[in-house]
Amino acid sequence: MNITAEEIFSINDQDEFNTLALKIFNLQAQNCNVYREYIFHLGIDAEEITKVEQIPFLPISFFKSHQVLSNTNPIEVTFSSSGTTGMVQSSHHVTDVRLYEQSYLQAFTTFYGPVTEYCFLALLPSYQQRSGSSLIYMVNDLIEKSNHPQSGYFLYNHDDLLQTLLKLKSQNQKTVLIGVTYALLDFIAQYDIDFPGLIVMETGGMKGKRKEMVREELHQQLTNGFGVNAIHSEYGMTELLSQAYSLGEGVFNCPSWMKILIRDTNDPLSLINLGRTGGINVIDLANVNSCSFIAAQDLGRINPDQSFEVLGRFDNADIRGCNLLVQ
């Protein structure tokens, strides 16, 4: 049973999502060894799963200790997490990197419009200085596909970044500045710029460079420093091939092939109602070749309109690059 990219990325409604999610679950329950063993040890009969809400979610920590794959195709790329020195890194082995490429390109287009309309500037020093980053893979491709002469990375050359931003502002060019949190704060500590049309997208993470801040305080500093009305964010991680986007206020929305559910922190196999805080479960159908059903180490809640908020992390969770700050 093969699942095609067209099936995944052409989902139009919840019924289509549920049908494909169950199809992928059945495939992975048979062919993903670690997931099959996990389901077995839970005492769950995969053949009795008939609703998405019944699907068990694999703890994300298994990506640190096991090879999570649901087929035997050659591995094309391995993405690794950005854990601190001595910490075990997660590894996401990808056997069809085109699924990742289509996922981020189609999601960006859904939320922002065509990539070719934008100039992409990246302020991601801690990611650039290591290998295996799925974020750098995505940003490289967005920079290339934008075909804009000013698109590119700025490591610590903040003056060059300032001059580039001023030039793009004068040209009324649609611009995305994607940056790790501490680097964005370092930039506005040196410079103020009033660029209301700029999309500032913070990826989270202080990397021990600065004290953790609540989101409201952080975003207020960034909106003031860049002269924008809101700070955008992306919710993604090494173990996923899809990401959700926030266009402001820390409220995220998923593309049609991704869904968030909230689990009870005291009973991780049970889901809880809208508006209550619990552990974030992610269904990422683009993860068809690894595992699409991941229990993340983040806390969150779902709003009535199916948007969601990230409210922090479990106390015993590793601090990683996908950390979106303690709220």
- Reading the helices and strands in chain order gives HHHEHEEHEHHEHEHEHEEEEEEE
- The structural class is alpha/beta
**Average predicted confidence as pLDDT:** 91
Largest sheet: 12 strands, mixed
Name the helicity range.
25-40%
Kindly report how far apart the N and C termini lie.
43 Å
Q: Give the overall silhouette.
A: globular
Distinct helical segment count: 10
Classify the beta-strand content into a percent band. Answer: 15-25%
Using only C-alpha atoms, the radius of gyration works out to 20 Å
Q: Low-confidence runs (pLDDT<50, min 5 residues)?
A: 317-327
Q: How many extended strands?
A: 14
SSE layout and pairing:
Elements: H1 5-9, H2 14-31, H3 33-41, E1 58-59, H4 62-65, E2 77-80, E3 91-94, H5 97-112, E4 119-123, H6 125-128, H7 134-146, E5 152-153, H8 158-170, E6 175-179, H9 181-190, E7 199-202, H10 215-226, E8 232-235, E9 244-246, E10 251-253, E11 258-263, E12 278-284, E13 293-302, E14 308-313
Helix pairs in contact: 2-3, 9-10
